[in-house]
Fold each of these.
Amino acid sequence: MNNQPETTAPAAPANTAATVTLECPITRGATTITQLHLRKPKAGALRGINLAELLMLRAESVMVLLPRITEPPLLKHEVESMEPVDLIACATEVVNFLAPQATLEKAQEAQREAAYLTE
């Protein structure tokens, strides 16, 4: 008989990256950026950002964070010149990173129910 405390396997990590396809690509010299890869921010990347404003999709907060978590890394002026539709797409992914997994699952279930009811 084993007197060791029972351990459970760690849960699968929540989403740690996302890809956003830009509706309005960003031109950098001869390069055209059509997709951005966003990584889930760690605490250091959130330094100096009001998290409540970030969760409310406040443009200024999102614009500060994006150069810290995008691949290829965006420059400040590139973020400032993004089309609103692309900024919102990135901001939505950021909120998905920050929301607890249980909250995301509830929201997804509500979306499925709403889609089922409108069919």
Amino acid sequence: MKLTMKDIAKATGVSQPTISRILNGNPNVNTESKIKVLEYIEKVGYRPNLVAKSLKNNSSYLIGLCVPDLSNPYFIEIIETLENIGRKNNYTLLIHNSQKNPVLEWECIMDFIDRQVDGIAMVPYSNFNLDKLINTKIPTVVLTQIRKGFDSVAVNHKAGGMLAAKHLLNLGHQNIGFIGGSIKEDDKFFGFERELSFNSVDFSMDNFISISDYSNTYKEMDKAITDHLKKNINNLPTAFFTGNDIVAYELIKILDDFGLNVPNDVSIVGFDDTIIAKTLKITSIKQPIEDISSIAFELLMKKIKNKEEHRDVEHIELNPILFKRKTTKQIGY
């Protein structure tokens, strides 16, 4: 037999309207009554009927979260943070992994819609799917990237690239490599190259290792990096800036296979400042996950609560922070 507010009222002597106010967090409740009701609820393990609440408020209290890669701890940290924020606000996260597959990503979006989520949080992989998603009119926020037409919150990747370059230049490095995505689309590289240029250092494209075509498996990515280093073994950079901490970690292992030590022979700066960087003491550019997640949730709540209200989209860029650890050092020391 299910426990109802009527049962609670009978057991505690508190009126049903007062119990309702207590369950909904209304502060204007007699303290004695509140304690009495909450203690009884804890004792019997009562939970409000969420289905009835959903019907009453025309809300599923579900948020769909789609990320492109569960092997990257950065996205795991986003999931955990958003899940905690949602739980505190009585929302449940429905989590999907697009596996960097645009077809699967669209299937994830359609599943969210079929399950009647109140809103969607996306770490997008495909521009094509975003163009289709915007036509569904479902409240959506984009995390970690700034995308036209969507409320978006992300760290400033160009500023992050500039921070990495500035740090390595200050350590005396001039011959610096970059490992990341497509040269045409990677804001981290744009900022990195611009800072080098500001300091009269030319970036050699021989030092650019693109892994955008090898990002589905570590084995393929490692092969791309290894092959590139073999071809340029006589003129290796004294430092590398990598697109994320996973690449930084893989690079450390590959350089070790070449008999090179980090940071004595080669310095490395990663990106994201995940548990990998913290554990292995990798110098990294921090993305403030808690800030990104909380701001994204606030933006999504605005859209959910004001579906019919037209307003301009918000693009919020946060400042990155560099954490110096053991993978970078002054050149010549």
Amino acid sequence: MTRPVTAKQRSTPWIAWLLLGVTLITTASMYGLIAAGCNEVLTGGYLAVRSSPFVFSISNLLFSLLGVLILYRQPGHVIGWICVIIGVLGGIQFYSWVHSSCMALPLPAIALTAWIFYVASPIQLIPMFGLMPMLFPNGQFLSPRWRAFTLISCSLSGALFIVMATLPGPMVMNGMDLGLAFTPDNPFALSFIPTSIGPVLNTSILIVLFVMSFVAAASLVVRYRRSEGETRQQLKWYAYFLSVVVIVQLIAFEVVGAFLYPEIFDSFAYALIVSFTFIGLPVVIGITVLRYRLY
């Protein structure tokens, strides 16, 4: 599947170590702020929101470490870079969230860190649920059609995110509460963009992310059905996990909560499925990498 790498070639790119360091620093800083009294995100909002800093910090660290391990074996491998990017985006995202919500300390740049969290939150979902399933395990698309769909989806998502990142008015990502003590106005707003498009923009982002995630999961299932032998074994864990757990989360919780019954986000079942999904993803990929000597 991949060409063997000699010991001389087997060296992790320095930028991967740098990104891992950013993940470690932002995660440690987040816990430092919580220990110093910035615990508003742990006491308000939905149950899944209150537990998410701990759940996602574990997920982010696992993704970053897994990415560095893959890049040590295969320095240019796409899957390794996707893992590292997921980890560093998550680390920045959750530090910014705790920083923005802190009322116990006179922290600077609250609006800026709120904007970072506001933007980074949906962007992290693209490599995690869109690109990873499309490219796993060899870093190649199944066919030019799958590649074209991914490029169109990423381009459309990028355009929507740019508008979201510059939309005037209070920053409310996808219509959901960020868990902040207050919702600051967008510091990078472009005044000529009408605020009235916010609801349409929010719905459009949700639809694009859902469709991209479903199609990416479908591509992984197709890849699994077409594969055989060692490749089939390498895909088995990830394909089963993604097609069952993640799709259950999207259908039974995310879609229902976004469009029909938002109270479901405050249920123990939703908090459990979120924890299982986001911690389970890097664990399952790690099992695949280590058990089947992938990469």
